[in-house]
Amino acid sequence: MKLKNNAKLYSYLVATLLLVLIPTISQAQVSPGDVITTDLTLTGNLDASAYGGPALRVGANNITIDGAGFTITVNGNNAGIDLSGHSFVTIQMKAEARRG
Prior knowledge:
The chain is an alpha/beta fold. The protein has one domain (27-99). 24% of the residues lie in helices and 25% in strands. The protein is built from one helix and nine strands, in the order αβββββββββ. The protein has one helix spanning 2-25; strands at 34-36, 40-41, 46-48, 56-58, 64-66, 72-74, 81-82, 90-92, 97-99.
């Protein structure tokens, strides 16, 4: 009987871990200058103020970049997100883009 209860507890534990981990698998933190080729949801603020170019570069058509309420900080006249040469890109920024 005790083994059966342990198996049930183990099943609940695994299910809970999967529910917690699966949403974070589709999210990624990026570094200044990264080329984005798939949908992206920011998981934290991106500070590119020390980087000499755009914070992010779009490298594919038909993708979505979701700021998820985080900020992108850039230096001088650099772009927060460089869309050059790509189309049908959706950018969802709920926070302001800042220049450092």
